[in-house]
Amino acid sequence: MKLENYEVHLPSYSIGNTIYDKIGPVCESYGKTVLVIGGRQALDAALDKIRAAVEQTELEIIGVELFGQDCTYANVERLRAMPIYHEADMVFGVGGGKALDTVKCLCITDDKPVFTFPTIASNCSACTAVSIMYNEDGTFLKPNFFVRPAMHAFIDTEIIAKAPCRYMWAGMGDTYAKFYEATISSRDERLEHFTAVGVAISHMCRDPLLAYGAKGFADHQKGISSYEVEQIILAIIVTTGVASIFLTKDFTPDYNSGLAHAIFYALTSYPIIEEKHLHGEVVGFGVLLALLVDGQDEEFEKVYQLNKAVKLPVSLEEIEISEQQWEESTNRIPHMSDVAHYPYAITKQMLTDAMRKLKERAGRENHE
């Protein structure tokens, strides 16, 4: 059967310690006036460096605005109503996922050129064609998909290396999950070209983290912009973003998620997860259980060792979830949309057995 017409727009990016020097060559063809929108801490970290780079170009920064608290449609409309937004030829989005998703939802919808300046490496928002939208109370609403990502991402490794290390720490868990979930959810299927490319690319969501994760995270804790840090940043921001674009089409099954994310979303029923734990942190824990359910004992051991090395969670206690709450969650997880397209049905017994094996692995370590 011939597939319907489709299009793929891939992200472009620059990366390095002095990469803002490329702002002029990349952005000048889109106009002259720039509005900068970002988070408060992100602007404190990056705005002076952006201003210094822009002063060497034909561009002019005409305003700086805070994006708000969450990526909400109300926030987007508040920014859209600002006269200075309409005066600007382009927008520079500066910050983490919520800030970048807000400016993407604002600008891509309006077909206004938008450029991303990630200041942390917690997710792939800088390079994706989707914004994760929230309700006004801070709870998850839905993903808002676009035809294309931002025009270009400027990934300054020096700024990211000096950011709070917990963001990259959590980003690692969400990144290697992409490989395991994509390969499991696509297993034994005849894949369309774009899906097959996405699954192939997803290997680079895992491999650099296993190779460089422990050293890179140790360097990041010291604020060092090393080769290993750069490889982790590329995996989190770029590779995951490119894989997501290939793996997400509205006329195909969702290969972009799986059991690890189902576990995360089920556990968000308990306020402690949203209040004290990061998305990728909990997803990284969920990967351990997903691999045990899938019988991938060797891969489980690799991820377990990486989690231990960087102190990502390997137990319920580390994410402050009780045995009773886990037991309750095992009733919900099999019905989550994230496992609707999986090579087999997830059962409560599978989850119970996986948790028992995880505890046994931790017990062996405690006796060694």
UniProtKB/TrEMBL annotation:
Keywords: Metal-binding, Oxidoreductase. The keyword Transcription regulation does not apply. Signal peptide: none annotated. InterPro entries: ADH_Fe/GldA, Glycerol_DH. Residues 13-138 form the Alcohol dehydrogenase iron-type/glycerol dehydrogenase GldA domain. It holds the Pfam family Fe-ADH. PANTHER family: GLYCEROL DEHYDROGENASE (PTHR43616), HYDROXYCARBOXYLATE DEHYDROGENASE A (PTHR43616:SF3). This is Iron-containing alcohol dehydrogenase family protein. It comes from Butyricicoccus intestinisimiae.
